[in-house]
TrEMBL record, chains A, B, C, D:
<comment type="pathway">
    <text>Amino-acid biosynthesis; ergothioneine biosynthesis.</text>
</comment>
<dbReference type="InterPro" id="IPR016187">
    <property type="entry name" value="CTDL_fold"/>
</dbReference>
<feature type="domain" description="Sulfatase-modifying factor enzyme-like">
    <location>
        <begin position="197"/>
        <end position="437"/>
    </location>
</feature>
<feature type="domain" description="DinB-like">
    <location>
        <begin position="25"/>
        <end position="159"/>
    </location>
</feature>
<dbReference type="Pfam" id="PF12867">
    <property type="entry name" value="DinB_2"/>
</dbReference>
<keyword id="KW-0408">Iron</keyword>
<dbReference type="InterPro" id="IPR005532">
    <property type="entry name" value="SUMF_dom"/>
</dbReference>
<dbReference type="GO" id="GO:0052699">
    <property type="term" value="P:ergothioneine biosynthetic process"/>
</dbReference>
<dbReference type="InterPro" id="IPR017806">
    <property type="entry name" value="EgtB"/>
</dbReference>
<dbReference type="InterPro" id="IPR051043">
    <property type="entry name" value="Sulfatase_Mod_Factor_Kinase"/>
</dbReference>
<dbReference type="InterPro" id="IPR024775">
    <property type="entry name" value="DinB-like"/>
</dbReference>
<keyword id="KW-0560">Oxidoreductase</keyword>
<dbReference type="InterPro" id="IPR042095">
    <property type="entry name" value="SUMF_sf"/>
</dbReference>
<protein>
    <submittedName>
        <fullName>Ergothioneine biosynthesis protein EgtB</fullName>
    </submittedName>
</protein>
<dbReference type="Pfam" id="PF03781">
    <property type="entry name" value="FGE-sulfatase"/>
</dbReference>
Length: 441, 441, 441, 441
């Protein structure tokens, strides 16, 4: 499943005609199945914690999304393959019907994996019909929802990678997902630098009717005032985080938010998720199995609490999402590694000869970066109408914003304005962080 | 998997030579796999509640038992297929090593089902070698442990049926286990009668070194005094239990033990497990799917609390295990239906022409019968030595005794002295009950 | 509150006339208040765990019992002081009305302690009227219920002592209940011996209409067969239990029932409740504050699980309740110390010159002795009718029988047939144990 | 305890000399005790939920604060009254020592209420010595900490009122706190209007070394950009909230944040805390007992989730904290009712003849107003050094900001920049809300 070329191109500019979405639709659907190809049937069934869904549930749910929001309303004569799926694969759309309880997704042996693939192909065929011959009066809505469904499936591609990693990591046998992942080229350590931004009134977010796709939670574009600040040129690395551990970072309550300290003690946290120490060497579980940590790769699988504690220990802080977006929008060398690279693990900064080394790099890709901002609506935010309005807006409490995508995000899915969010306790995403600070006068 | 003939004969008298156990061993192993043959791969993985184990875990655990207690100590040169299995498939033998946590059996996708079958066949082959050429100095121990391992696997055959039923029943799709179960012949309702016993000093239990196999918890034979009592001629039926429901049995606290009342309200019990009402008709989930209840079949999937409440409502009581055993030992027509019948569901009493209709029947088979006795050791009880001592003795608190086997018990596994036990809250076993009362003067 | 004379005599033989219960009623009521006299107002309010009730709740509940079962039905013109008390102080009588939830008794600041004493005295006065001038047609019922209410209040006297100890022990200040407890006279260690019993058919329990009071759960008298056995001449002592601890008794799963092992690990048990080690010395919290343990006193505040594990470690077992009762009924020197002694702590055996030292002593008093018997009804058991039937019968699952009373039991309350019961996990009662074994041939 | 005059004046401008704090210290201490004067001893002991502290704990903790941060470091020869209090009354200062577990504050009967008053007066006397004769070299620190301790005790005055209300409301007897509360004058309904703000770059927060006291979390002053917005002229009223209830607001998931919806269903919310319906009339529990709701008073005891759902239902939103602060800073008629009014209940807007009715009123007092802002640090935020740094900073996750104080806040304690915070689920504070919206073009 590894390759050097982009997995698939999704149009960056938003086409208006349903027909234009046919090929992207097929591409996305194929990649999802490609991601699952190394799995054993048994792996598809497991729910290793409430937040994780069985891979076969992901396969079915993204299919349900197309069926529910496109086929049922717009494909004349469409007959669902199985009426029960509407209940089973509704994730959280309360206004659509009573969703099957999330923590019980892992007790469903049926439909089988084969039946779910059958469901996928049944819906694929119907989607082919709909996109090829859309009813004219709904053409625009169909194009918009096809686009949304494709981005939705991309999100679940990343969730699949995260969840598969969590599932396999719980198993004392610690099986590798596959032995055929790409090996990253050798890296050279890069010292962390600081880059100053003047601040002032900046624009954040995107307009609802822009040419490029964006989620409702990135909208609308609006102004924010930023005090002058500085941003680190790269994320915090494993080596730096080991230093934090060795200096007692997990044992000093003065460094931690109260909720984080309580949770860390309760759960016995002493290092990032998936880490263990043998002698003086730290190892971690990766999708290719147990490996020694790469000192120069960004630290990953830390919660917001750990990122925040590290920043306090370092005498710095996390950037706000506005600071981060402002920097990312104005940086040329922002790309790191995505799902397309086929590493499925964050890797150290690669400095290309054409980069301005003084400026922040690796903003997109490798690790999602925790920001210091709680996930709340932008001024003027309007959720999508109908059940689709439950897509983003209803999660705007209790979560922190992460930015930039990671090694499991499709490259065509991410952009500087993209707002991801997780509870501050979450660690199973590919989440790291970067430091910021007030400008030095 | 249904047949009219016994599934397999296990020698009723205990042979002393390992060689004699080779064929029974093969028979038992084959039946276990036969029971799983209708399953989809996905079904093998599910743990629908903490008390349920994934079918593939059962397949591996019974294999681990032979490996741990026979192959490793006695087969020269035996090399385990996978060292990790010792931890993964140890059920609860704390003195043997740290068992993998029971509630997490359902997060193990690996080893796969295919690998577990490979493990089984690997162990089967080694067992063939050991039983065919046992080292002379351990011959007696090997024969004893082979016998124990076979009975242990029979227990897990019943657990497999119980657990598969629970797993499939959780699924909103309510799939049938198989459509190829035997259909029971038509039954004729039989009125419940009472049969009197004089009581006095009776013998209960069996001697440790008897000719027939028995578990340590059935030993030793000892005397008990029984006051005169009467025992119902058959178990309570579905129809009788519906009457209890309709008379408000689930809503009157005066009928219930305190723990039972609290649990029933907390869990919202209004009928036996797997039952639901449609209009005035009660249906229940069976291994052949949803069916209307058979009014004349014994009520099944009730907890001790429900059995006890019914008895109080009826003005009677449950028999003690000593009363039950005394009656069962002295009754000619005690057999009902077992796993071998292939119904996998309790059925109504069949009255054969040669039966004495006045005497209690159907004591063995169809449903395990809750007794009024807590599960405690007999006077003089000695647990097996070493880790095997954890087999029965350590569960002698918090549980009630059930007697007689059920429609999922192999016929060759049960006997009147057999003591099964479950917590009073358990409902997923094939558990029913029979009434008793003090003798009328 | 300490004294050498019995706290109060309750008639051993059951009088038939309500008038005869007037003085015993007043005596019992006075002792309850005497027990509370060392408390601060704040102590009356605390519920230190779900099983503990605030002392002021006990004071009110026993009063409610007299009001509910005597004054309201039988005292013409009786007007309750406060209608809300019927809900607040109903302990668990579901058939009487919806009881206030037990775990929330500790959030009730009102009625205040003063109001509850007012309630007591209001009811005392009315009870004086009723017992002095009982309506003739209910005379017998009134006498029976007065007797029951008095025994009920005696039970709560012991619960008060247990609960006060638990409440004060949670407080890091570890306040003494009072400094005015009686100091026990010096004791001389007595070696433990064994006394043989022949067994055979024995009588257990008492007839419902006997001359002496007994609870319904002690009835009816019936026969049991006992195999020959031996009983230890005294309970296990602190010194013996320290030996068990030092030999790793809390760390060897082979000694423990499965439920007990899991609980002990979960709760971090390493010694009896209220114990702590300083250097090599064990201390424990008592109602006079922290004290070094007395090596010769019976071990106390152990669960059934710990008692059972000790017995297994010692190669012996606990007696059944029938064995215990048979021994206690036929032993002349059975008395130890009760509430009346004013020690409120078990003390070592005192050997009087007129004792037969070979026979079991100290069966009554000092510590409740865990038996190996689950708490179940006797053959022919009939609960009291009406709401009073909830008194004992509905707790007959999930509990083990203890026998003999303790240092917090009024001497006039206990008898050899008395059946107390607690869940096997309970430790806050004054619970110890004595060993038994099969007879040696 | 009711009066028309301010309860006590705390200097608005921050004095530099410890002596100047002596009288304010005495005033604050006296008010705290005055607030407790209607309580029964028993009321002081209760912890009705984990978030509530027993009143006697509040009395002791605020005293501990002065002892820990002033007397121990700065009063030569100070000897604590009881060394154990340092552990018992440390709220959450992990760097100071191991705090006594919060959920167990309600199991402490000792120290008694009388002992805690003794502790207060002991510390009061020592504080008198310290403030009258401060060591010169620490004079400034002592003045700063005295000021902080006084504001800290004011916060606990409000918490006392909230907690007492919660404690008494749990009791089925629903006792009034006191019958001597001030009765508010009759109110006239005022229609809600909207007032527009231009937005732009505004200043938020206060400078650390300003003349007036402020908490670290209000600092530093910094710029923010506000899009044009409109703010409601008064909080949402009970009558308006009843309309939301009647229109199905609690039953439509489309109105709710996901966390809020799940919580509301789990807890069975159908109205604000303390409300119940009788016929068509809504009643609520107040500190003077059960009363019909006042239709024109601000709705109170709603969670952030309910406020947010109401706003969505109304087609509006909650203001951000920056919007709110900007409006409050520039509004002349901002005062409502505080602790000093003696109502202890929010009351409807009183329109004074000198008010500009078009502008937002009642911003300070009556109800804390939920904002749409998560509680996070301002740019450039620096926590206090040492253990005092745990005062505010470590709670900056998982909480929402509320502004403006309430009917239980001392008038001298509140200011437009003041940031209060609670989890979005909290309802026992006097919390209401006001609507905002984007400016209409």
């Amino acid at each position: 499943m590894a390759q050097a070329e982009p997995l698939y191109p999704v149009p960056v500019e938003e086409p208006n005609a349903p027909e234009d979405w046919l090929q992207p639709f097929r591409d996305v659907r194929a990649v999802t199945e490609q991601l699952c190809s190394p799995l054993e049937t048994e792996d598809y069934v497991i729910q290793s914690m409430d937040d994780v869904s069985p891979p076969k549930w992901h396969l079915a749910h993204v299919t349900w999304f197309f069926e529910t929001f496109l086929l049922k309303p717009y494909l004349r004569g469409y007959v669902p393959l199985n009426d029960a799926y509407d209940h089973l694969f509704n994730s959280y759309y309360e206004t659509h019907g009573d969703p099957f309880p999330r923590p019980r997704r892992g007790i469903l042996s049926r439909p089988t994996v084969a039946e779910i693939y059958r469901y996928r192909h049944y819906v694929d065929e119907a989607m082919g019909l709909l996109l090829s011959n859309p009813p004219a009066e709904h053409s625009r809505t169909i194009a918009e929802r096809a686009c949304l469904g494709i981005h939705h499936e991309q999100q679940h591609q990343e969730l699949l990678v995260m969840d598969i990693k969590h599932i396999l990591a719980q198993n004392p046998l610690r099986p590798a997902y596959t032995n055929r992942l790409q090996t990253p080229p050798p890296r050279h350590p890069v010292a962390m630098g600081w880059y100053p931004y003047e601040g002032g009134v900046v624009s954040v977010g995107v307009e609802p009717d822009g040419e490029e796709f964006s989620f409702d939670n990135e909208q609308p574009a609006h102004r924010q005032y930023l005090e002058p600040f500085e941003l680190a040129t790269r994320p915090v690395t494993n080596q730096e985080f080991v230093h934090f551990i060795e200096q007692g970072g997990y044992r000093d309550p003065a460094l931690w938010l109260s909720d984080g300290w309580n949770l860390a003690r309760q759960e016995g946290w002493e290092a990032p998720l998936y880490w263990r120490q043998e002698g003086t060497q730290w190892w971690h579980y990766t999708l290719r199995g147990w490996c020694p940590i790469d000192p120069d790769a960004p630290v990953c699988h830390v919660s917001f609490y750990e990122a925040d504690a590290f920043a306090r220990w370092a005498g710095e802080r996390l950037p706000t999402e506005a600071e981060w977006e402002h920097a990312a929008t104005h940086t040329p060398n922002r790309h790191g590694n995505f799902l397309d690279s086929g590493y499925l693990q964050p890797v150290g900064t690669r400095v290309r000869h054409d980069f301005d080394k003084r400026r922040p790099g690796q903003l997109l890709g490798d690790v999602w970066e925790w920001t210091g901002s709680a996930y709340r609506p932008y001024p003027g935010f309007r959720a999508l109408s109908g059940s689709l309005g439950e897509y983003n807006g209803k999660f705007m409490s209790g979560q922190m914003v992460l930015r930039g995508g990671c090694c499991a995000t499709p490259a065509s899915h991410i952009r500087p304005t993209y707002r991801n969010f997780f509870p501050p306790s979450a660690r199973w995403a590919f989440s790291g962080f970067r430091l910021a600070r007030e400008a030095r006068q």
